[in-house]
Amino acid sequence: MVASEPRAGGRRSKGPRRSTAGKRRRATATGWSPAPAQRRLHRAIDGGPPVSLAFQDFLPARRETGWGSYIDAFLRMNQPALDALGARVEVVGSPDGPLVRVVPGTRVGAVPLRSPQTGHVTAGFIVTPRFRWAGIGRVLMETGWAAAPDFLDLPMVPGSGREVPPWVLAGPVLSRLQSLLHSMRRGYREEEAVLRRPRGRIIWPEYLARSLVRGRWERLPCRFPDLGHDPRLRRHARWVLERVRAD
Fold it and tell me: DSSP strand E in 93-159: where?
């Protein structure tokens, strides 16, 4: 609809405005990005049957199907992690091409698996105890065996605390906490405390409002610089260590 010509001394009339809500909704909808694909966690049982690894979990979308020439690169990138878990890799033939299977050993735990094409962690492999996670400690206690967890210096394993116990996933976190605590340096920070002898600056308003009116003349609220480690960072590190120890 075309707007009419303006008249002398009058107001210019306009045609009906078109609603842009639909356009905005369409523009917003087309701007959405698809949700990232969740990295798969392959599960096995200690001493159990082999687990087949689908090539789609490690190779991005491409024209060829199957592992192709990436099997050697997959073994080279993931063999050290699987060796630490006591697992063995088998390459078997099939009508659809070669298949990669992982045979679990007698060790339980979880390791990340890298893509042979990108080198990034795209999946994980976990070996659960046949007695389940809640029963492995009870079995070791009754048999008298002593077993301490071995925390590997590897990237984070895909998964959550609902699928895998936190202490199994805590290896990379503990390694980084160890490096952080070793590299911590003492620094000055401002502290406040109630002392019997003045130190730094006396907070006179607080002294008059809390100490003097109550007859506690010897209690001096002071603000002073103190040399030490960051207490908040140490509290966070202690919380993580206590959580892993409790699990």
Answer: 99-103, 109-114, 121-128
